[in-house]
Request: fold
Amino acid sequence: MRITEKRTEINRMRKTRLRHAIRSMRRVLAGKDAAAEAGKLFPSTFSAIDRAAKTGIIKANTAARYKSRLHLRLKALAA
Reply:
């Protein structure tokens, strides 16, 4: 029982960290001068998404969907 509670807490922490990374990337993409800021934030956000998928916090297709949508928004800013 205690192991389950500990793992639940760790998983909750990891999912929260992932959501914060995605949320900060979306805020940067929505703001002014987004291209430069998003370029810096891009690798760390994608890394967080990949790590969450690897550890089972989110499924692989969900990770791919997040990355695809963020990448499309970044490309739209660059164009």
In short: The chain has three helices and no strands. The first helix runs from residue 2 to 30. The radius of gyration is 14 Å. The chain has a mean pLDDT of 93.
